[in-house]
Each structure stands twice: as C-alpha cells, then as structure tokens.
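Worked example 2:
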Amino acid sequence: MAVKIRLRRVGRKKAPMYRIVVADSRSPRDGKFLEIVGQYQPRVGDKAINLDTARVNHWLDVGAQPTDTVRSLLRKAGVLKQRHEQRLASKLQAAAVPLAERKPDEA
C-alpha cells in the first residue's frame, strides 16, 4: 500500500477549500482516507494553510509521499525546511568532536 499526503476538495461551487489528508494512493480523490492533517483555503490569502505539523512529520517519517501540490504547500508553511534543518543538525552533531577529546596541538 502506497500512502500519499494529498488534497481532498470540500466547499461549495466556486469557493474551493481543501483538506490535506493522508490516504492510500489507490483511493479516489474525495474517497476514503486515513487522517486529516490540515486544510488549505486558497481564497483566504495569508492564513490559507493550517497544518498539524507533528502529524505531518509523523507521516513523512513513516514513508508517506506528498503530492507535488502538497509538497509546495509544506514548503510554504516551512515544514520541509524545518525537517531539513533537524536532519542536518543531527548529522553535524554526530560528526562533531567534543573539545575534551581534541589534542592540545590541534587548537
């Protein structure tokens, strides 16, 4: 089963609103889903994206793949940048040598 993070349309005609859902890739656009992790209202303006970042990160860690549109929304919300910085920090932390372990002639 391939899990996707994608948009599900709700709202009335000419006034779209989308829920950001985690769903099986084989289910239809507005069909069965596993969890709602946020919503996107394109006509609102500056407060268009509302996300539960903890749940989004959980699903990304488990292996869910965002669609292209959701990926751009996550980028706008800063979720992908935050994930990248956390990964980079942990990698740098593992590679760093504590000062106590350095030899005096290296300083």
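The chain is about 35% helix and 25% strand. Helices lie at 53-62, 68-77, 79-95.
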